[in-house]
């Protein structure tokens, strides 16, 4: 590693997102992995999908070996200016309207689906009872 590392802006690093020119940000460090694209066990698509963002989580989730971490030193080109890295946006689910089962049309339909067959059955039994010959 260099004794006085170059500091790169996020915008600059994110432009290097091609197979022939690929830079990654991992743990605040910038790596030019272009020469490693063909040799990466997961293929170049994996590396390309990690460009344009902080790839630390992607890298750590895979569980790379110690030898892979040592190999990274060969591709180190500098540090990232942390102030230029966009903050992660947390997912905020959309607000849902509170559900009140007593006031929805679906509730009325469900009640009718239950009551109408009972009324028909009751009517059929009443008709049979009063029309039955004694």
Helix content: 25-40%
Beginning-to-end CA distance, first to last residue? 107 Å
**Major sheet: size, sense and barrel closure?**
5 strands, mixed
Strands, total number: 5
Gyration radius, in Å = 33 Å
Strand content: 5-15%
- The helix/strand class is alpha+beta
Oligomer: single chain
> Averaged pLDDT, please?
86
> Number of helical runs?
5
Q: Unreliable runs, pLDDT <50, ≥5 residues?
A: none
Helix-strand topology string: EHEEEHHHEH
Describe it.
The chain is α+β, with helices and mostly antiparallel strands and 134 residues long. 39% of the residues lie in helices and 14% in strands. The chain has five helices and five strands, in the order βαβββαααβα. It has helices spanning 10-14, 44-49, 56-62, 66-72, 105-131, and strands at 7-8, 17-18, 21-26, 29-32, 76-80. It has a five-stranded mixed β-sheet with strand order 1-5-4-3-2. The chain is rod-shaped, with a radius of gyration of 33 Å.
What is this structure, in a nutshell?
This protein is of the alpha+beta class and 134 residues long.
Keywords:
single chain; 134 residues; alpha+beta; five-stranded mixed beta sheet; 5 helices; rod-shaped
């Amino acid at each position: 590693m260099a004794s006085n590392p170059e500091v790169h802006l996020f915008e600059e690093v994110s432009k290097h997102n091609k197979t022939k020119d690929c830079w990654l940000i991992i743990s605040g460090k910038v790596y030019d992995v272009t020469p490693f694209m063909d040799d990466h066990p997961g293929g170049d698509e994996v590396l390309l999908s990690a460009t344009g963002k902080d790839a630390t989580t992607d890298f750590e989730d895979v569980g790379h070996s110690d030898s892979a971490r040592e190999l990274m030193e060969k591709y180190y080109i500098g540090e990232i200016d942390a102030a230029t890295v966009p903050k992660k946006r947390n997912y905020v689910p959309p607000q849902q309207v509170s559900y009140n089962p007593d006031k929805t049309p679906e509730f009325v339909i469900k009640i009718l689906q239950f009551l109408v067959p009972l009324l028909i059955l009751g009517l059929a039994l009443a008709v049979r009872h009063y029309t039955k010959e004694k």
